[in-house]
Amino acid sequence: MLLEARGLHIAFGGVIAVDEVSFTVKAGEILGMVGANGSGKTTCLNMLTRLIAPGRGAMMLDGQDYTALAPDRLVALGISRTFQNLRLFKDLSVAENVALGVQAGMQAKGTPRRERAIWARVHELLDMGGIRVHAGVLPASLPYGTQRVVEIARALASSPRLVFLDEPFAGMSSDEARMLSKLLLDVRESSGMALVIVDHNVEVLVSVAERLIALAEGRVIAEGAAAAVLSDPAVVRSYVGTDV
Amino acid sequence: MDGEWSATLLLCGIYSLVAIATQLGIICGAFSLAPIGWMSVGAYAAALAATKWQVGGATGLAIGVLVAVVFGPLVMLPVRRISGLYFALVSLAFVLVIQSVVSHMDYTGRALGIFGVPLLTNLWHVGIALVLVCGVAAFMTGGWRGRALRAAGQDPKVAYSMGVNVANLQLVVGAISAVIGVVAGFLYAHYVGYVDPTQYGFAMVVQVITMVIIGGRGHWMGAIIGAFLITSLPLILRPLAEWRDVVNGALLIVVAVLLPAGIFGVFGLFRRRAGPVDPAEAKAGH
Ligand SMILES: Nc1ncnc2c1ncn2[C@@H]1O[C@H](COP(=O)(O)OP(=O)(O)OP(=O)(O)O)[C@@H](O)[C@H]1O
Ligand SMILES: [Mg+2]
User: Fold this and answer.
1) Helix boundaries (H) for chain A
2) Which residues of A touch B166 (CB under 8 A)?
3) Suppose B182 and one of A54, A73, B64, B176 were both cysteines; which one would form an S-S bond, judging by CB atoms 3.0 to 4.6 Å apart?
4) How far apart are CA A37 and CA A52, in angstroms?
5) The pLDDT of residue B266
6) What CATH number does the domain located at A3-240 have?
7) Residue A121 and residue A52: Cα distance in Å, rounded?
8) Nearest C-alpha neighbor of B216 from the set B255, B282, B263, B172
9) Per-residue CA distances from B245 to B19, B203, B234 (Å)
10) How many Cβ atoms are within 10 Å of A189's Cβ, its own excluded?
11) Mutation for testing the B interface, residue in A45, A86, A89 having most B CBs under 10 Å
């Protein structure tokens, strides 16, 4: 098992945001995570990437417990992520943002971080995402969907084994979403990395994810094949009254 | 060279050092005024070495640098808890505490300060120090290290998730900028021949902030541009000598409104952000 989340739990003040969440991800697998607004998806990702410390529970990668590891050590383990609200470095160019991912990967592997090698890999990634023409500009000058692609390229740049994507399809046109899902499938094919994708766009999500996990009020309410999860009465009930 | 101009040039160089030290902190997300406090440590080290400890200037400098290396990171520590202007205020407190300590101790000559520091500093010393410090600044802000530094300054949380140990980086910058401050103060004391507590206080803080903002935030070269401009302005505008603060203030407003990225920002537009062009590709006509 690549990732194993065991009984993750956290409360903010009196509000339990994530309640005893356990699930696993196999190497090379794409897991979709769904749930209504506020169901705890982002908070799960924040714990799994160590941006916040879990109140209870444990997280293992390849059997290694990383629950107490410092957040800057996760890249070396092979974990990277994107953010629901774009978090690109706004005063760094598109290429420099991606370069940060590349150099993090090199640092993790102990390869010397030479500029020439870094930029060669940056340009490769930019080409792959079809964003090479934007290399020198600041992210804010790009459309939202393109900025998402930049952030994803930055996350893939460290050659991770496991990537968490928080609503990668949000704000994308259906064309953009289709291109991105193809890109993600290609990357998985060539590198074998596993992906955990949170998104409200169930249609696109199902087209890339092999398996779904559904959260409601911080708890896992269903898990398994897409069709089964989406028709699960508990899942249907949790979405009633929401816009999805 | 005209004596007055060479004197101004020398001061430009010394101010450039402090401005660069301040700029390095700003780039990595720690807006610290501590370098001005460190300048005072360097100046008093020079004065005490010459008058009380009876050791050579080099030994005085070494002692100052040692203190900076040890305590520079310590003064940077609060940035882990507070940031932005609040941290700037804490670092200002450090400057004022040093000022207050030296003005109350007999050992440092109280408000009178210490006279009789040998006049040793010449343009060469300042020039060499500036070249070395520029080298350090270029090293810290170039390549992968520079990207990590700027990432830490812009979004520390995301920087952490990109493998950057933000806290350690800021401590290293704390040590480096403290050492630069000590060197600047040391050179200054050996140039004017005395130290007193008023030299490194609030006025100097305002002066350095003005230099950094006018020259351009985000790049060490901006600090040099600002330092040269603000320091040489009184000489250029001699007829307006009495209006020096007004001119500085007006300049600050004009730059803040018209060039929010500072004077260097104008050049920054031409900075290569896309990475080096692959020569083979350039030939292929891309
Ligand atoms: N830092 C925080 N402080 C207080 N409450 C928080 C914090 N982070 C999340 N919460 C709460 O935890 C719950 C889960 O939030 P979370 O952002 O994980 O939901 P989500 O499933 O990602 O929702 P969305 O689909 O809207 O992104 C919400 O009730 C939210 O208000
Ligand atoms: Mg969310």
Assistant:
1) 41-48, 74-77, 94-109, 115-128, 144-156, 174-191, 202-208, 226-231, 233-239
2) 72
3) B64
4) 19
5) 73
6) 3.40.50.300
7) 31
8) B263
9) 18, 11, 10
10) 10
11) A89
> Is residue A112 within 8 angstroms of chain B, CB to CB?
no
- Ligand lying closest to the C-alpha of residue A243: 1
**Cα B134 from chain centre:** 11
The secondary structure element, H or E, covering residue A215 is: strand A211-216
Per-domain residue ranges for chain A? 3-240
The CATH architecture to which B2-201 belongs is: Orthogonal Bundle (1.10)
Tell me if B181 sits within 8 A of B36, measured CB to CB: yes
User: What is the ipTM metric for this complex?
Assistant: 0.92
> Which ligand is nearest the CA of A51, by number?
1
Contact A187, A193 (CB under 8 A): yes
The alpha carbon of B95 and the centre of ligand 1 are apart by a number of angstroms equal to 42
For chain B, which residues make up each domain, given as ranges? 2-201
Look up residue A117 and give its two tokens. Answer: 């090698």
Q: Give residue B245's Cα distance to chain centre.
A: 20
> Which phi and psi angles does A135 have, rounded to 5°?
-45, -45
Residues B224, B18 contacting (CB under 8 angstroms): no
User: How many angstroms separate the CA atoms of A198 and A232, rounded?
Assistant: 18
Question: CA of B14 to nearest chain A CA: how many angstroms apart?
Answer: 29
Query: Burial level of A94, CB count in 10 A (0-12/13-18/19+)?
Result: buried
DSSP designation for B252: H
What's the start-to-end Cα distance of chain B, in Å? 50
User: Of chain A residues 175-234, which have a CB less than 8 A from chain B?
Assistant: none
pLDDT bracket for residue B282 (50, 70, 90): very low
% of chain A beyond a pLDDT of 70? 98
Digit-coded pLDDT (tens) for B27-66: 999 999 999 999 999 999 999 999 988 888 899 999 999 9
Shortest Cα distance, chain B CAs vs residue A42, angstroms: 15
Nearest CA to ligand 1 atom 17: A42
> What residue ranges line ligand 1, CB within 6 angstroms?
A 12, 15, 17, 35, 37-43, 84
Tokens of B200: 């490194």
